[in-house]
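Appendix B. Raw example, untouched.
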Amino acid sequence: MTKKTVIITRPLLQEAVHPLESALKHEGFDLRHWPLIDTTEPHDSALVLQAWQGIDRYQSVMFVSPQAVQHFFAHRPPLPCPLPECWATGPGTRAALIREGVEFSNIQIPDESVGIWDTDQLWLRVQDRIQAGQRVLVVRGGQAQGGDSSIAFEAQVASAEQEDAGVGRAYLAQQLRAKGVEVQFVVAYLRGAPRWAEPQIKMAQEALRDQSVWLFTSSQAAQHLASLLPGVEFSSAKALATHERIAKQLELLGFGVVVRSRLQTEDLLVSLKSFQ
């Protein structure tokens, strides 16, 4: 029996093998790791250092992804102040924080029994833990193309919200400000599309037709795939999406089969086994 191929599109991290990958290999899946988001250092890391130096001003620090954790902690000073309570939208980011030495009890994520990993669910968890007059720092990524990351730290709030209009980080900032909480953003890394040579493009085109399953945990990754393969037909392609927003993006691209799944490893395995 031929192994089913799963293409993992999440960015690479400097870490041990992700638990999902171990589980997929154990179940006999053939894995290909084709990251569709490249992450690099910001143009001006002094802003990240400035955030660290003032970390004690914040009641909480929200990390948007494991990459945000990795890049932010890469600039941790030798003797930092104790870290405030940390917020994350999912277990992957929580695991990245724990690898950096943050105590499990100092991390808030959405209710795991619900299994929906987004800022709406995070807000339900943290809304009663803060009060007017406090400050929250959001550690996030920025777009690699264009923009000037050397703007003043305080000015990043406006530019970040403009880029994030309509997505979770802007929603969280709106909810916090409605409660009288001051919100600041710091760009800890830059996101961009990877560069694929012709052999990689040909392999990807084949994987859109050969019953491989593309696993997407980001709608931006789906957009990057479309930009890497202009004019390519997606109607024979199969994808597994971990959020409704991602699924809608894939459907707009024309993916023939799009299955939704919660992000827990057990749910993803069940969904992947359902593909025929």
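End of appendix B.
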